[in-house]
């Protein structure tokens, strides 16, 4: 299906998933305006949200199934496999978050159905951010997503730490948006366009690779995205915000927001700045510093939530390694790694939410002592998450790391690959103690894990995620293929869309 | 038919067995695990006869796993790996039987992990695809980590994490090297594949990058062996692990390192491995391991730690044998690998048995117990003598061949290594004297019980092997000779 994006009918078609989600968002707003008092209303809103996400997923699938492609230049919104696949990621993340939230919201007495509305609009923002073909759309998506997530972080109005988290996130996030906007302005100033492909073409035809204005704009853009993906040194907000937010939202931030920001970063860097070599250097250093610093600080954490927060910083570093390569293989590696990372992160935070009945902020790693005997299923799930984050074969986390290493090696980044594995070894120092506490330390008291309640839905989410991690660890073939095709669909401007490269055999060229 | 599926059966059956073990009531777990491990051994035994020494790689099986990435499930054994596979299947039932009394908590988990570990170990020895090899190499870490960390001694947490992190550091760098190698070969031949044989065929001269890659492989294997100075994880892990863990660690896991050198590091980078400076360094490290391991073993107050350090010394002989690069020395290295698995395994069993009675591993806690437990003392003496390398026991044949072979190419090193045999005699005989001879002066020791039939059932097969290999090693030597010859020829060209 070829869509001429200059015609509004075709543009609407290209925007079908976003339109469906917006429609549902408006419906949901109306519903919660009327029903917002009881726990039942809350559940209604939750199920509606799931329906909304599912129908949007179907819309994405429809475009993908008909292999929608732009006729000529893609304006405003990209129509390629990368967008479809990342859209699924965002929708899936949101859906799993909703499932985990049911029990959590009722337990924490957060009877605010707006929660789901905000979640829907944040997801819409992600889809625009990841699919934006124009810097203005990217910015709009980023703001839509960020504003909703700021509010979600502070949705628990009775918690001072949530208020702190929301305010901190908002202030630092505003800075990031300002950086991004200024970067867009400078890029526009240098090239006269905000369309990613046109910027790329201008850079090539006008030879702007060393233009100071463009480089400055590029730098500011990277800073803006660096905040959102939580790369060192722009990670300062992460621990407090992750720590103070409601745990399902923390999972949503760590998984969804990061995924969306990475999708946008990849698209902007590859499509618009493919001709500018400077960003490889910047990304190289960002990746190296993020991996090492994130892991080293995580090593010093005592509470599980802060440890996971810093571990998410470290994983941003691994993903940046794949971004640094700038190749189709690197983009594919990002997609695959994101799937593994999202599944693991959501499951880990769902388990944490179940454990931390009286404030999950205070769950230390040692509090998990004896969980392996008291609650074997829960402990097993958390252990699989840790092992997958660590990247041990048999789990999706390993295939993800392996893919990133392949991409880095292919691009000749041997040193960065070595740094990645050294950082991974450091990470064993904080993932293993979790397993150690659960299986190798005695329970402090018989009632230590009495308060652990994993609801039926959260349990299903965790079980599905763990199963997914294990299956993808052994049979990753189909997802690898999907990641490869989608990764190949974003390419520098001016490069003729050739046939999607085959796998290893033709990559060397 | 058997040729075709035996390795796959050996790989999958323990995992299936582990699932079964998890499902039955806890009190049946050990019996079921013994049955599973026994059947595993039974499956593997016919390989001894059906193996054709001259045929190179055999029992091959190849299936696409991730074909788009050049990754296959590809397995096979030759004269190098055959014995390691058999050693694994032979030792595992014994460790299960040896754990009957020792392991009293969470039995299902223990035996399930032991069986999963078995699959991992077999996988390492039979994998002919570097991706599969790496997966097996790492997968094995998790069960071993749990076995040390959950069922180990007082310092188990520290020992477990140290073991894990050391091994992981080496192996992840190896992963980077593997991927780099695949790309280097792929760019040259146009065929991107993780297959061992295709990599070997397309390798050619790598130039300076070969040194880096060899370094990564070397680190991974040297940590596992362990070569001095990468050995510091070993005393902790061996000492803190439960008996079964120590036996598996010493008997099989350490051999993965030397196997890695024989199968991958040396054949992939023969020029680098034979670079005079590198060769000298590694031979020197092997000698340091032999002498230093022996001297440190001598002063250990803890008998289990003493055995752990003696492993460093024995594996030094293996390294020397590999790097001496003569037919005898390589055959000797292979034999030392097997012998060490048998003798040191038996020693660890014996320490475990006496520990279960007296709850002390300190040598000074005993003395004169030969009078109380004569059978134990007799077996300990025989096993110790085999570990020292007394003629007539298995230990002699291996070390003698290594020294004989090494003398042709590295006479000085061989001379120094010979003194290592004397050091071994010193530390083991001295320990024996303090353990089972000397006056019986501790009242706690007067009531010790001698070996039970179950314990004898664990030890007698090992004793039989000690004698068999010591008196008539020919069946072993003739099965490994073509493979050893091929190894020497192929790397020397």
Write structural notes for this entry.
The complex is a heterodimer of chains A (509) and B (493). Chain A is mainly alpha-helical. Chain A has one domain. Chain A is 74% helix and 1% strand. Chain A has a two-stranded parallel sheet with strand order 1-2. The longest helix of chain A is centred in the middle third of the chain and has 32 residues. The radius of gyration of chain A is 22 Å and the shape is globular. Chain B has a two-stranded antiparallel ribbon. Chain B has 2 domains: 273 residues, no CATH class; 220 residues, no CATH class. Chain B contains 21 helices and 2 strands. Chain B is globular. Chain B has 493 residues and is mainly alpha-helical. The mean pLDDT of chain B is 89. At the A-B interface, helix 17, helix 18, helix 20 and helix 21 of A face helix 6, helix 7 and helix 8 of B.
List the helices and strands and how they pair.
The complex is a heterodimer of chains A (509) and B (493).
Chain A: E1 2-3, H1 8-14, H2 16-34, H3 39-65, E2 69-70, H4 81-107, H5 114-131, H6 135-153, H7 160-191, H8 196-206, H9 212-229, H10 238-244, H11 247-272, H12 278-299, H13 304-325, H14 328-355, H15 371-374, H16 376-390, H17 396-410, H18 414-440, H19 456-474, H20 477-488, H21 504-507
Parallel strand pairs in A: 1-2
Chain B: H1 2-23, H2 29-44, H3 47-50, E1 58-66, E2 71-77, H4 81-98, H5 107-126, H6 130-139, H7 141-151, H8 156-189, H9 196-202, H10 209-224, H11 233-240, H12 243-268, H13 270-273, H14 276-298, H15 303-324, H16 327-358, H17 374-388, H18 394-409, H19 411-436, H20 453-471, H21 474-492
Antiparallel strand pairs in B: 1-2
Helix pairs in contact in B: 1-2, 1-5, 2-4, 2-5, 4-5, 4-12, 4-16, 4-20, 5-6, 5-7, 5-12, 6-8, 7-8, 8-10, 8-11, 10-12, 11-12, 11-15, 12-15, 12-16, 14-15, 14-19, 15-16, 15-18, 15-19, 16-17, 16-18, 16-20, 16-21, 17-19, 17-20, 18-19, 18-20
């Amino acid at each position: 299906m070829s869509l001429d994006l200059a015609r509004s009918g075709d543009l609407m078609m290209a925007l079908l998933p976003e339109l469906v989600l917006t429609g549902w968002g408006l419906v949901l707003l109306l519903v919660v305006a009327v029903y917002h008092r009881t726990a039942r209303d809350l559940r209604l809103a939750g199920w509606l949200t799931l329906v909304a996400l599912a129908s949007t997923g179907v819309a994405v699938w429809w475009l993908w199934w008909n292999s929608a492609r732009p006729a000529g230049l893609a304006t405003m919104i990209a129509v390629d496999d990368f967008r479809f696949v990342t859209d699924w990621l965002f929708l899936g993340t949101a859906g799993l978050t909703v499932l985990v939230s049911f029990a959590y919201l009722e337990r924490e007495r957060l009877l605010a159905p707006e929660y789901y509305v905000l979640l829907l609009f944040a997801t819409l923002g992600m889809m625009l951010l990841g699919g934006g073909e124009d810097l203005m759309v990217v910015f709009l998506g980023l703001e839509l997503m960020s504003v909703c997530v700021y509010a979600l972080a502070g949705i628990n109005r009775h918690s001072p730490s949530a208020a702190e988290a929301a305010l901190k996130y908002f202030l630092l996030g505003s800075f990031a948006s300002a950086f991004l906007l200024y970067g867009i302005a400078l890029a526009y100033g240098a090239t006269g366009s905000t369309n990613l492909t046109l910027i790329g073409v201008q850079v090539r035809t006008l030879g702007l690779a060393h233009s100071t204005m463009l480089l400055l704009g590029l730098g500011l853009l990277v800073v803006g995205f660096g905040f959102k993906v939580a790369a060192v040194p722009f990670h300062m907000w992460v621990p407090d915000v992750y720590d103070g937010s409601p745990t399902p939202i923390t999972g949503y931030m760590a998984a969804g927001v990061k995924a969306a920001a990475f999708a946008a970063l990849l698209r902007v860097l590859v499509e618009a700045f493919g001709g500018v070599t400077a960003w490889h250097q910047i990304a190289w250093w960002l990746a190296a510093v993020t991996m090492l610093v994130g892991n080293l600080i995580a090593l010093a954490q005592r509470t599980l939530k802060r440890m996971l927060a810093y571990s998410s910083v470290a994983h941003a570093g691994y993903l940046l390694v794949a971004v640094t390569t700038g190749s189709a293989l690197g983009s594919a590696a990002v997609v695959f790694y994101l799937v593994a990372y999202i599944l693991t992160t959501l499951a880990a935070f769902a388990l944490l939410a179940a454990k931390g009945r009286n404030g999950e902020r205070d769950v230390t790693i040692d509090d998990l002592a004896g969980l392996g005997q008291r609650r074997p299923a829960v402990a097993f799930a958390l252990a699989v998450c840790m092992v997958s984050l660590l990247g041990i074969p048999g789990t999706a986390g390993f295939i993800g790391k392996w893919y990133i290493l392949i991409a880095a090696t292919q691009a000749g980044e041997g040193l960065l690959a070595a740094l990645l594995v050294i950082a991974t070894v450091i990470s064993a120092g904080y993932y293993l103690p979790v397993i150690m506490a659960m299986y190798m330390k005695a329970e402090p008291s018989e009632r230590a894990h009495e308060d652990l309640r994993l609801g039926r839905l959260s349990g299903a989410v965790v079980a599905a995620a763990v199963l997914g991690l294990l299956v993808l660890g052994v049979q990753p073939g189909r997802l690898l293929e999907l990641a490869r095709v989608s990764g190949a669909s974003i390419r520098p401007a001016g490069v003729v869309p050739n046939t999607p490269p085959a796998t290893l055999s033709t990559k060397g060229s | 038919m058997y040729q075709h599926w035996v390795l796959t059966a050996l790989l999958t059956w323990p995992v299936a067995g582990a699932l079964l073990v998890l499902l039955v009531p806890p009190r049946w777990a050990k019996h079921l695990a013994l049955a599973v491990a026994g059947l595993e051994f039974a499956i593997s035994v016919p390989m001894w006869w059906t193996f054709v020494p001259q045929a190179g790689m055999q029992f091959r099986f190849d299936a696409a796993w991730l074909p788009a990435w050049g990754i296959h499930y590809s397995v096979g054994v030759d004269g190098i790996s055959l014995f390691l596979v058999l050693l694994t299947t032979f030792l595992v039932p014994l460790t299960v039987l040896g754990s009957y009394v020792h392991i009293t908590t969470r039995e299902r988990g223990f035996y399930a992990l032991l069986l999963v570990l078995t699959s991992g170990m077999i996988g390492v020895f039979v994998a002919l695809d570097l991706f599969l090899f790496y997966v097996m190499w790492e997968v094995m870490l998790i069960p071993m980590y749990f076995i040390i960390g959950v069922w180990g001694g007082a310092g188990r947490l520290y020992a477990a994490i140290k073991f894990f992190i050391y091994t992981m550091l080496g192996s992840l760098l190896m992963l980077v090297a593997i991927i780099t190698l695949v790309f280097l070969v792929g760019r040259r031949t146009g065929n991107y594949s993780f297959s061992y044989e295709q990599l070997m065929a397309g390798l050619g001269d790598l130039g300076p990058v070969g040194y880096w890659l060899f370094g990564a492989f070397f680190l991974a294997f040297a940590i596992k062996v362990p070569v001095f100075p990468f050995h510091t994880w070993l005393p902790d892990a061996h000492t803190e692990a439960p008996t079964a863990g120590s036996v598996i660690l010493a008997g099989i896991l350490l051999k993965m390192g030397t196997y890695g050198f024989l199968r991958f590091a040396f054949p992939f980078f023969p020029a680098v491995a034979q670079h005079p400076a590198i060769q000298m360094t590694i031979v020197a490290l092997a000698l340091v391991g032999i002498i230093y391991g022996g001297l440190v073993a001598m002063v250990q107050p803890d008998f289990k730690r003493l055995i752990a350090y003696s492993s460093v010394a024995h594996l030094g002989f293996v390294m020397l044998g590999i790097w001496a690069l003569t037919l005898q020395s390589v055959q000797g290295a292979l034999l030392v690998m097997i012998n060490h698995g048998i003798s040191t395994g038996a020693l660890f069993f014996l320490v475990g048995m006496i520990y279960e009675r007296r709850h002390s591993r300190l040598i000074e806690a005993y003395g004169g117990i030969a009078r109380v437990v004569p059978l134990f003392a007799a077996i300990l003496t025989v096993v110790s003598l085999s570990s020292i390398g007394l003629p007539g026991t298995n230990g002699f044949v291996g070390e003698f061949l290594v020294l004989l072979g090494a003398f042709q190419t590295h006479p000085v090193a061989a001379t120094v290594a010979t003194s290592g045999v004397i050091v071994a005699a010193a530390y083991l005989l001295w320990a024996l004297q303090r353990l089972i001879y000397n006056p019986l002066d501790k009242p706690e020791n007067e009531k010790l019980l001698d070996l039970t039939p179950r314990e004898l059932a664990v030890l007698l097969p090992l004793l039989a092997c000690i004698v068999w290999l010591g008196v008539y090693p020919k069946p072993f030597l003739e099965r490994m000779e073509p493979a050893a010859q091929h190894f020497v020829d192929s790397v020397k060209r």
